[in-house]
Prior knowledge:
Elements: E1 5-10, E2 16-24, E3 29-36, E4 42-47, H1 51-67, E5 79-86, H2 94-112, E6 118-125, E7 128-135, H3 138-151, E8 159-165, E9 173-176
Helix pairs in contact: 2-3
Amino acid sequence: xxGIIRSYKHDDDGVLLFxxxxxxxxxxxxxxxxxxxxxxxxTDATDVDDEDAAEGLLAAFEAxxxxxxxxxxxxxxxxxxxxxxxxxxxxxxERDRYLERKASAALRSALAWRGLGTVERSEIGNSRLNIxxxxxxxxxxxxxxxxxxxxxxxxxxxLSIAAAPHADPEAFKLKHSPKNVTGxxx
Length: 186
């Protein structure tokens, strides 16, 4: 079974829109999620009989997206965002690993339901928790990350966010930081 199909297009006013679809095996549903990037999306689900029916719906969805001008957004047009938390120990503690799981899950949901990208990986080291996200819109994703971290009651005072073009993942520029932080390093 193929995974999620995600596509984007700019409308006549230059606003970035997205559509995505997948088959939810647990509920036996074909799911379509769509909206304006950066805003809470709308979701429609349809019961399907089996995977074959879902594959047919995915193919039809993909064809309709192409017909409507939607296409997969190349990685070269996306950005790396890193949500970074300062930690008290170099290699992290069990509490930090809990933060990693909770923050990663929260960001995965917050970004996905707004068409703002995906959480690609996370890592703990050098007294930092880094959560790497691939996003189509830096400013909207930074704002969503800040709102998400506050809303999940995670330690916002330890959060820094930096962005880099996908093609230059070493060129991170700080987009948000605590008052006493002026630079960004992984």
